[in-house]
Amino acid sequence: xxxxxxxxxxxxxxxxxxxxxxxxxxxxxxxxxxxxxxxxxxxxxxxxxxxxxxxxxxxxxxxxxxxxxxxxxxxxxxxxxxxxxxxxxxxxxxxxxxxxxxxxxxxxxxxxxxxxxxxxxxxxxxxxxxxxxxxxxxxxxxxxxxxxxxxxxxxxxxxxxxxxxxxxxxxxxxxxxxxxx
Length: 181
Known about the structure:
Distance between the termini: 41 Å
Radius of gyration: 16 Å
Number of domains: 2
CATH topology of the largest domain: Arc Repressor Mutant, subunit A
Number of strands: 5
Structural class: alpha+beta
Strand order of the largest sheet: 1-2-3
Shape: globular
Helix content: 25-40%
CATH class of the largest domain: Mainly Alpha
Order of helices and strands: EEEHHEHHEH
Strand content: 5-15%
């Protein structure tokens, strides 16, 4: 049976869903309708607290459900990006042997059910932060990267810290899903 908990984090509340000792979902913001299935989940709280303290230590067990082979390959690469570091969507595509599949990588990350433990916020566009489908959008992505850059010994990534990511390109305001505004 899936159990839920709401955990307060430095970037706001997140709902974590756990079933059989595996994290099935992590989503930012409160979710109405789950109150009847709420439980205090100490292990999940510890995993999230450790994440925000920069102690990702051991691997958090996740349940990816019906994720495709492509999505699982993307998640495997992204899960190995250390805190405080970034990769581009194109870099991830090349690492899984699919150069030119940067957009497909972005779509796989949009489907990521466990956004902290498969840290999709660490994947950025070649010309800016890229998108972020979680509540809070690109602003939340920048906040997560900034927190990691300050807390991590790695400090800077392939594309630098969040503060170094370029802002929106002129005339790109209508494309906020791809560039920070």
